[in-house]
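DATA CLASS: polypeptide
GOAL: derive structure tokens

***
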Amino acid sequence: MNLRPALALTTVGALVAGGAVTAALGAAPDLAAPGNVVATAQGRDVQVTWAQEAFPSGATGDRIDVRRDGVTVATVDGAATSWTDPQLAPGRSHGYVLVAHATRGPRTLTSPPSDTATVALPAYLVGAATTDITPSYGVNIGGFGLGDGSVIPSQVTGRGGYWPGPQPGDPTTPRIRSRAIVVDDGKQAVAIADIETQGMFAAYEAGPYGLHDMAEAVAHDIPGLPADHIVIGSDHTHHGPDTIGAWGGVPTSYLQLVFDRTVQAIETAYANRQFASIRAGQSDASDLVYNQACSEALNQSKTPSYTGPDVCAVPGKDGMVRVVQATAPSGSTVATFVVFAAHSTTNIGNQVDGDWPQFLGDRLATIYGGVGMGMEGANGGTQPCRPTCSFTSPSEPGYNIDDRFTAVMVNYTAHVQDALAHSAPVTGPVAADQSYIHEAITGPFVNGLFVLGNHLGTPLMRSKEPPWMAAQTIRTVAADVRIGSLLFDATPGEGFPAIRQGVADAVSGPAMVIQLGLANDQLGYLIAPASYVPVIAAEAAVNDNILFNVSPTIGDHVMCADITLAHALAGTDWTVTDPPTCAPYDAADAAQAVAGDPLSSAPVGGISVP
């Protein structure tokens, strides 16, 4: 019996079947696709993670390609399970795909692409920082009255006082700070900083220690943060170092310290930028502040001493607590920024301190984490209830708390929480613009301080040299900052609420207009509108707003300059309508710009009231 053909058929069948199996195996992927791929925003980076790839025995050269949006951006060792994509721009979405490779013998093995891991990056990069500016030695303290007591008796005018410096072994000394927040949309960055002293000038007579000098120093070190994108203010504490000189001033060494530490705070905030989403909201706290020129100022206690009728020849106060908070993708807080019109005269500290902006900033850092920062807003003609006025709502949580510090902190914190509870996301570009304006010094008291202050114990430390001052003409800074749907208008002094309101009326589109007080300079009270000046002047015996006033028109001039600057920030989503009353100011500022910023373009006697 011949069995060979059968065996042959069996062998052929087996070979055919084996060939089919081999063909089938050849069609299968050489390697499994990487699994569990996840992309997460962390800090300034995106962290891509995945499950460890199982490479076959005997394979060599195992590696994994990381593709972002279809382009290979990295190749990592096959044993790796994570990779960091560094320094990405905010506001974009990216898709990450992984492909594994290896070599076995003469063959190159390649896996199918993994599933796509998508990450949507927050709209902004936000950084924040603080630096300590507490003096290590005794300094004059800004306060109430005028002078250091050496010429004008303190019994006549009062004085700010003197702080002897921290006492050895005393841990209770508050630490005053410079605080800074930087916001970057990937194209432009802006910075807002606050210094916890009585006031800071754009430029100083003693040397390059002014707010303008600080901004220039940062811009020199960080080209991505131009000087006109930086707003630096002071919190106007009446318990802080007298960095303006109305109460005797401070040593040059302290000005140098403040300069160095403020520049450091801004630059550290810039270096600390990380992905963050921003929300903003406001809460009505009008019952916690009063208009100095209204009859409500007579009722600074729970029991009214004046029962009416309510009278106010110069109405208006900005009672909104405005809050901006930046949050990282992890949910941690980067910064909480609060602006409120309460003058820093709550007097809740008892040593050198930054009054409510400092204490509230510290409290918010404790509650939320990150950096807390408080800043005065439209504080001209506005003072805080200490802690209650007769019209303060009993619903305020600090209403029945006897300790002033606790009552003020509880009340202000409650409004911050309310503002955040009703906050909305902030979206849109980041931008800023700045200009110089000139104003003739027509206020006799201010002019007298500039001329005779050195002989009266009130040595105003502001530069008296061009371009900041010539004869009786003074130059100062107006600035606008845009952070998405928020418009910040910087006022170089204690601005009246009409300034903010005028900007809000002229610019359509912003979700919120936020006035930053004592920003880029400190030129006293910026009374607005100018029609209020005669009434406030008549109150000079009980209201010092007219005494520390450069000119009747400076408040309106700053408002109009801020409105003009808003054009550069508007884009297609905001519109700016210039009020007819701003024409004289706009014309004067335009003449200065065309002629190269001449001091003489501000007419003697000031700009005529429209």
